């Protein structure tokens, strides 16, 4: 037991999880903004905009996250010299955030689109009938209701994002939890299984409140019709 | 009942003018060479069996339905195909739907103020005053803070009328405004509409309410199979229909009541 507990003093495990939370936080904001824009493109009346949104979703959603993050680090930064921070470590962190945001935006887009499908067509017609053009109608009438209808799928996307933030390990973010875990396992092969369990339980503890919160919010914020 | 309210006419031409309008849904010719003019202050009621194209006609006038051929003009201006120009024109055309379509996430007051504030750039206080006046007029001012789902169907439809009026439209379109209502709520909505008609609002009403047509219409248009079959003053139409189609339609109504 003492043997096991020593890993908490030897390694900064809460700090490692904190890096994942930070990755998630910034990537979630990016994915929400980009995903909302993509959803607007996909529901817009202009065919070419729809095509852009659809192409993005089909390309990005069907590409493994590992490949996207490796692309950010090896191609964007390594090959093309695309730098997001002058600090060497922070640059990898931001590239990983970029990759996570770009990838999850496709899922956010589809979650919002499923929310749009919960909004009756008459809402859009009424908005158009009082003279609102597409963007104001989307912003003031459609999206506020769509987000409320999309809380559960958006929550699922957030949960996936939290766990997927460990893929930042392939993007040289050495401080996040799965990288730290890999290091620990190398040095403490005697307690491999407890180490795995520690990180598994850690993620469960982080994710469970998100699930509870989305269930609560989806009921609380449901649009009465 | 229209004549004395025509003083502020901005132009002498018709408010709504449809010329040679055609629309197909696949093989179905839903609008067949429609020609129609509605002059300022006129109340036109469109009657006809289900599937005769009357709702499609109503919705085509503010381009919620596209048309294949023909032109539609609102106050002399041809209906634009899309974009800002279409939005501007729609702001001049009030629309009341069968299913009310109040913005479900906004309060009654916000439903009415949204258009004036966001489309017309009216100040919030001014829009609120206007909205409260209109809600007062349709008899639901005491519900201003509630959400649409908390109101009865009849109340919701009266709010929808207030929402359309808040844009100070040149013409109001009613697409079967009482068809989704419980019987005891139909009259409160019809009374509001009769009031509007008396005040000189230009109205085009698709309905099955023969009582409203008799009471408020200046002209009745009878549609069947996508065509305007007959048009006449209400008394003339109900007592002395010309076409067999209209006779048949009216005959069925009478045997059912």
List SSEs of chain A in N-to-C order.
HHHHHHHHHH
The total tally of domains of chain A equals: 1
Spatial extent as radius of gyration of chain B: 18 Å
Radius of gyration of chain A: 21 Å
Helix content of chain A: over 70%
Low-confidence residue ranges of chain A: none
Main location (chain B): membrane
Pfam families (chain B): ABC_tran
Keywords (chain B): Amino-acid transport, ATP-binding, Cell membrane, Membrane, Nucleotide-binding, Transport
GO molecular function, one term (chain B): ATP binding
Describe the structure.
The complex is a heterodimer of chains A (225) and B (257). Chain A is mostly helical. Chain A has ten helices and no strands. Chain A has one domain: MetI-like fold, CATH 1.10.3720. Chain A is globular. In chain B, strand 1 and strand 2 form a beta hairpin. Chain B has a six-stranded mixed sheet with strand order 6-7-8-3-9-10, sandwiched between helices. A four-stranded antiparallel sheet of chain B has the order 2-1-4-5, covered by helices on one side. Chain B has 257 residues and is α/β, with parallel strands linked by helices. The chains are: A mainly alpha (225), B alpha/beta (257). The interface between A and B is medium-sized, with 22 and 34 residues.
């Amino acid at each position: 037991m003492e043997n096991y507990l020593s890993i908490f003093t030897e390694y900064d495990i809460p700090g490692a999880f904190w890096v994942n939370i930070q990755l998630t936080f910034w990537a979630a904001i990016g994915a929400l903004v980009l995903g909302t824009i993509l959803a607007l493109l996909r529901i817009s009346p202009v065919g070419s905009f729809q095509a852009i949104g659809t192409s993005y979703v089909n390309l990005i959603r069907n590409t493994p996250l590992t490949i996207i993050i490796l692309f950010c680090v090896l191609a964007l930064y390594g090959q093309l010299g695309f730098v997001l921070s002058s600090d060497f470590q922070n640059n990898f962190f931001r590239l990983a955030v970029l990759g996570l945001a770009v990838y999850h935006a496709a899922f956010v887009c589809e979650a919002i689109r499923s929310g749009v499908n919960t909004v009756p067509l008459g809402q859009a017609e009424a908005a158009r009938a009082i003279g609102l053009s597409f963007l104001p109608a989307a912003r003031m009438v459609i999206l506020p209701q769509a987000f409320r209808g999309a809380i559960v799928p958006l929550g699922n996307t957030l949960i996936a994002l939290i766990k997927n933030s460990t893929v930042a390990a392939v993007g040289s973010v050495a401080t996040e939890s799965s990288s730290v875990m890999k290091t620990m396992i190398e040095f403490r092969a005697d307690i491999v299984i407890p180490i795995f369990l520690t990180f598994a339980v850690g993620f469960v503890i982080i994710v469970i409140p998100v699930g509870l919160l989305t269930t609560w919010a989806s009921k609380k914020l449901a649009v009465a019709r | 009942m229209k004549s004395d309210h025509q003083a502020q006419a901005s132009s002498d031409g018709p408010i709504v003018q449809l010329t040679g309008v055609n629309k197909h849904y696949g093989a179905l010719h839903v609008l067949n060479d429609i020609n129609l003019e509605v002059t300022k202050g006129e109340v036109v009621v469109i009657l006809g069996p289900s599937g005769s194209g009357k709702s499609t006609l109503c919705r085509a006038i503010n381009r919620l339905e596209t048309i294949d051929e023909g032109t539609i003009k609102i106050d002399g201006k041809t209906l634009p195909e899309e974009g800002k120009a279409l939005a501007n024109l729609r702001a001049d055309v009030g629309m009341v739907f069968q299913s009310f379509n109040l913005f479900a996430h906004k309060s009654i007051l916000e439903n009415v103020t949204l258009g004036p504030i966001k489309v017309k750039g009216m100040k919030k206080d001014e829009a609120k005053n206007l909205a409260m006046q209109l809600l007062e007029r349709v008899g639901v001012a005491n519900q201003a803070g509630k959400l649409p789902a908390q109101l009865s169907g009849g109340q919701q439809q009266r709010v929808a009328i207030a929402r359309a009026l808040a844009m100070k439209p040149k013409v109001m379109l009613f697409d079967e405004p009482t068809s989704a209502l419980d019987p005891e709520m139909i009259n409160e909505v019809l009374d509001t509409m009769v009031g509007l008609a008396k005040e000189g609002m230009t109205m085009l009403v698709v309905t099955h309410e023969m009582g409203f047509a008799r009471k408020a219409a200046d002209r009745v248009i009878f549609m069947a199979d996508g065509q305007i079959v007959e048009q006449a003053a209400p008394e003339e139409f109900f007592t002395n229909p010309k076409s067999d189609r209209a006779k048949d339609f009216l005959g069925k109504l009478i045997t059912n009541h």
